[in-house]
Amino acid sequence: MTNSNTAISVSKQLGPLLRHWREVRGKSQLDLSMETGVSQRHISFVESGRSVPSRQRLLTVAEALDVPFRERNTLLLAAGYAPIYSDDSWDAPEMQPVADALRRMLRQHEPFPAVVMDRYWNVLLSNTAVPRFFNCFVDMAAHKSPRNLLHLMFDPVGMRPFIRDWPETSRSLLARVHRESIGRVVDDKTRELLKALLAYPDVDVDWKALTAPSSTPVIPLVFVKDGKNLGFFSLITTVGTPMTIASQELRLECMFPTDQQTERLYAEMMEDAPMPIFPADHY
User: Fold this and answer.
1) CA angle, corner 112, sides to 108 and 113, nearest 5?
2) Which of 37, 79, 125, 135 has the fewest C-beta atoms lying within 10 Å of its C-beta?
3) In Å, what is the CA distance from 88 to each residue of 20, 31, 75, 95, 112?
């Protein structure tokens, strides 16, 4: 009787979760059945709490729904199985090859800024150009570690006063939070981050409103220093075949000048920027 009650409890937890992910991806039960080879009847039974799939079948469905690793562990737990995706930190021993590769890419991107961030835009690593560049605008020592790149941009005592076209820039940054969230899903911590950013002054609460397409291929992030504009755009690198939560959630962001004038002004500015006293990869 206990085993039967446990199975019913498990199925009731799993069903709503699976239905949530299917609806998030905009797929019908038939769509999911055709993609996975799992019968539509069985999917219906799982979602209604009448059945619990095998672990492998559940993972097949999660893969088809592009469920992020962290949330796949939640699905497994809801089905009564042990999690299979490691939740160790980004600097755990098994992450050493990835961390070494990221540090190498950070160094190679000099003299321009580059950072490694987690899922919530917290900076984990940087090259030496990052503190040198931002210290040209604000005293980075006044901002506690670990630093969040978005908070640094939105904070009125951070980089916010030095950003040109703030309404458009803030909207594009908030849109990036949604667009680049892992698995294209905004989880509770991402919602908390968005709420905190929207609480800053001069942030458009209607940031989802569509704007006219730009004539340029990217929306630059333009900083103003001594009346001169420095425009940058970013390229994002992720791990191609992640197998752990940490490796899936890491992002390397490299900043590039948008034009030759920015490249020249940046070089002049950095000539007088002191080198950081901490290790190159510490932010």
Assistant:
1) 95
2) 37
3) 27, 34, 19, 9, 30
Give the count of alpha carbons within 13 A of 120, CB side only: 15
Average pLDDT along the chain: 88
Q: Mark residue 118 as left, alpha or beta (left: phi above 0; alpha: psi -120 to 50; beta: remaining).
A: beta
Over range 185-205, report the average pLDDT. Answer: 88
Q: What is the mean pLDDT of residues 102-116?
A: 97
Q: How far apart are the first and last CA of the chain?
A: 56
CA neighbours closer than 13 Å in the CB half-sphere of residue 283: 23
Task: Write the DSSP assignment of 108-142 as a string of letters.
Answer: HTTTS-EEEE-TT-BEEEE-THHHHHHTTTS-GGG
**Average of per-residue pLDDT across 73-79:** 95
- 196, 176, 198, 172: which is closest to 186 by C-alpha? 176
Q: In this predicted structure, what is the pLDDT of residue 7?
A: 46
Return the pLDDT at 277: 59
Contact 135, 115 (CB under 8 A): no
Q: Which two tokens stand for residue 119?
A: 């899922």
Q: Which of 48, 74, 47, 49 is nearest to 59 (CA)?
A: 74
Cα→Cα distances 123→72, 130, 230, 251, 269, Å:
25, 11, 22, 10, 23
Length of the chain: 283
pTM of the full structure: 0.85
CA-to-CA separations, 210 to 11, 69, 166, in angstroms, rounded: 41, 31, 16
Query: Sheet containing 114-117: which strands, arranged edge to edge?
Result: 123-126, 114-117, 251-257, 228-237, 221-225
Does residue 71 register a pLDDT over 80?
yes
Residues 6+ apart with CB under 8 A from 215: none
131 burial (CB, 10 Å; 0-12 / 13-18 / 19+) is buried
